[in-house]
Amino acid sequence: MIDEQITESISDKLQSGTPPMMDWRAFADWISVDHTVVHMWLHRAYIPSIKIGRRRLVNLVQLVEQLKGEGE
């Protein structure tokens, strides 16, 4: 579902001290993917997220663990 290049990009950026959660729009910009694509990933539960108030945040730590698990 998520491209291998995006997976590597996320892992590299996480090691450089990013926060454990990020607004989904900021996440889309961060990985250079169109907002509508990330919105559909969230809607289809392809990537882990949490809703706090009105905000939908992507759980980056859980996403990396999930991606590492798929590679095994």
How many separate domains make up the residues?
A: 1
Number of strands: 3
Overall helicity: 55-70%
The gyration radius over C-alpha positions equals 11 Å
User: Which strand-content bin applies to the residues?
Assistant: 15-25%
Uncertain segments are none
Please give the CATH class. Answer: Mainly Alpha
Any idea of the CATH topology? Arc Repressor Mutant, subunit A
Shape: globular
What is the average per-residue confidence, as pLDDT, rounded to a whole number?
83
What is the number of helical segments per DSSP (H or I, 4+ residues)?
Answer: 4
Strand order of the largest sheet: 1-3-2
**CATH architectural group:** Orthogonal Bundle
Largest sheet: 3 strands, antiparallel
Class of secondary structure makeup: alpha+beta
Q: What is the terminal-to-terminal distance? A: 16 Å
Order of helices and strands: HEHHEEH
Protein name: DNA-binding protein
Organism: Marinobacter fuscus
Topology, please?
Layout: H1 4-15, E1 21-23, H2 24-30, H3 35-43, E2 49-52, E3 55-59, H4 60-71
Antiparallel strand pairs: 1-3, 2-3
